[in-house]
Amino acid sequence: MKKALSISRKAGDRYITYLLLIVIFVGVQSFLNSGAASRSFKGLLIPTCAYILAAMALNLVVGVSGELSLGQAGFMCVGAFVGSLFSLLTEATIANPLIRFPLALLLGGVVAGIFGFLIGIPVLRLRGDYLAIVTLAFGEIIKTIFNNLYIASDDTGLRIAFSVDAFNEKPLAGNATYYIKGAQGINGTPQDSTFAICMIVLLIAAVIMLNFMDSKQGRAVMAARDNRIAAEAMGVNVTRAKMTAFVMSAFFGGVAGVLYSHNLNSLIATKFDYNLSILILVFVVLGGMNKMRGVMISTTVLYILPEVLRALKDYRMLIYAIVLIVMMLLTNSKSVRAFAEKVTGALKPKKKNQTGGAE
Amino acid sequence: MALLETKDLSIQFGGLKAVDRLNLSIKKGQLYGLIGPNGAGKTTVFNMLTGVYAPTSGTAVLDGVTLNGKSPVEINKLGVARTFQNIRLFGKMSVLDNVRLGFGNSIHYSLFESFFHIGRYRKAEREATEKAMELLKVFNLDGEKDYLASNLPYGKQRRLEIARAMATGPKLLLLDEPAAGMNPNETADLMDTIRFVRDNFDMTILLIEHDMKLVSGICEELTVLNFGTELAKGPTAEVLNNPRVITAYIGEDD
After folding, report:
1. Of A212, A225, A234, which is closest to B102 when you measure between CB atoms?
2. A167-176, A283-292, B23-32: which range is least confident on average?
3. Is A219 on the interface with B (CB under 8 A)?
4. Which of A251, A328, B186, B239 could form a disulfide with B182, with the two C-beta atoms 3.0–4.6 Å apart?
5. Structural domains in chain B?
């Protein structure tokens, strides 16, 4: 007990998040193993995990670093296509998906991270909402590029073109395979994404992000958010701090894209449009900026809700909108917060020996 | 040998000479006051010394290193820390984290080590936390370490700003109206704290203040600014009795 008490409040709060993830994993996995899970339930699991990861990653920019990014779908898109392409190309050489898939995850993340870095160089030096504008454009550009990209292989080797004309002029010779086929997207990605892998990736990502927020680099990011002038006067390199958070966000956005794409037999680039970026932003804002656990919960609820409401047909989006508004009002209402505090306060004496507590 | 020496330090905004040929010479370990009526250019001097504004002409030298042209981050690393007239804390961070942030450049571990809290992270963080708690005790804030900085009462926010500045390990501490908004009791406590910091941390302190009780109580030397120019300087008692200073503050007899 003595050791437990010496754990700081922050660390205790982190362990609650990890525990929550593990409990959900064990619960859902045993439900899956029991065979009682419906097909639509199974179909929702991996996309939900991917969106949770994308939303947590976006939270690093929006909540922790206080900048607005509207391009999370763009990073997912990069990760999805790079990861899928890698898996398609190496399907024969690396037969074991347990080796191939982590490599694909890493590669998709790293390439997305590089894009984040390149965007960050000019934009993060500026003050103001430039990041929102540039990331919005980035998302659209990436979507358009992948929507027009053709990658195929034939006897002459790998061929890349931005229009199908190139293949018409000089047809593919011999044993030809299309990997990315323009607007038809990428087909036949090996289905390496499983719920277990998704949850392991989520847990690792949660450890990295939450640990980061409790480190000198994370404090520098939050200080730059709270007061840029004071942060500089205290020796914080603001551009570097914001860049760290932004590149991390892009990296995990890319990883989320890889998780997502390896669940689909066929993936098209227009999936990663502006609406998706906004959807992820909604998850973050309603989950409570800067609060990773809240973002996990809001993403799960808000992603699954429209699927559950499918039976209501036309009224689906209406109810979804009402739920959004109610959530917004509840999380911002002082009386509701006071009530929640009263409830947790009443529970506290029983929890005396436990560390941490809900924030 | 002076720790901080400015030579004809001036800054001009358009046609306005906000600070005109200021010569300061502050010895190591001194408690030096910069006073003057509102709008005299005192905070502008701080902003030039910390790299927020670039002086139009003149130089500022700290311990033999020229500060001109350096960024706020570089100047902080050279050993100048400051507080702000309008409090600038990291409001959504805890009191402890506000202070621990100040140790950012003196504790060393890589980003990878912070991802998994391994390697040098644990020892460095433990040390930073211990040192931060010591500082918080000095400023009587250790009881509020888990509060969000923005939830502290005003007087404590001012003290936290000084604690945070101290955490960066400065040679020279610039305090911009540390007693503003404090009641007489809080001001008396603050005077003790400032003296304590100077004596126990070997600190050199330059402060801007309007509270004459604080100024006459702790400052050894003063410079009086009026409309950007130096009106008087010298030992505190002498300066405060200078008829020109009195005139600048309360106006002339008709």
Report:
1. A234
2. A167-176
3. yes
4. B186
5. 1-79+170-254 (3.40.50.300), 90-168 (no CATH)
